[in-house]
Amino acid sequence: MLLAGQSAPAFSLPDADMETFALKSLRGKQHAVLFFYPRDDTPFCTLEAIDFSDHEEEFTRVGCTVLGVSRDDCLRHAEFRDKHGLSVRLLADMEGEVSRKYGVCQMKEKDGVRKLCVVPSTFVIDCQGVVRHALYDIKPRGHVAEILQLVKQLEQPCK
Fold this sequence. Notes:
By secondary structure, this protein is of the alpha/beta class. The protein has helices at residues 43-54, 56-61, 74-84, 97-101, 143-152; strands at residues 12-14, 20-22, 31-36, 64-70, 89-92, 105-110, 113-118, 121-125, 131-136.
């Protein structure tokens, strides 16, 4: 698990439009909120993604980019985004490499089958690439408002 004060692990992942996004592209320019979720179009994940999208303009005003990450592929992300009118960028971590770097994976067993699962988690990363807040096993209700308040407390502006 990552802790506040640690450097955010670097990564590059494709988004719903199959364009590559690199976390380092925000360095010195913008803060980031990185939220990991198990799967597109499940009730929990949909609620969280819609809530982040509904507040994306507020995050932008305080110099922050919001990014969602799951192990779904780019096409599934595009369908999920379009179905629910999502505006936040969704990144495809199909191999789970980034999820492992951020410590959001857990092995779970169901019906005798062990499976790697993503624990819903959110990271607030400042514009210098430092994890300022790491929240694991989050609940969606009120979560986005809490994260927005944490971002507003970061030193402004980045540039």
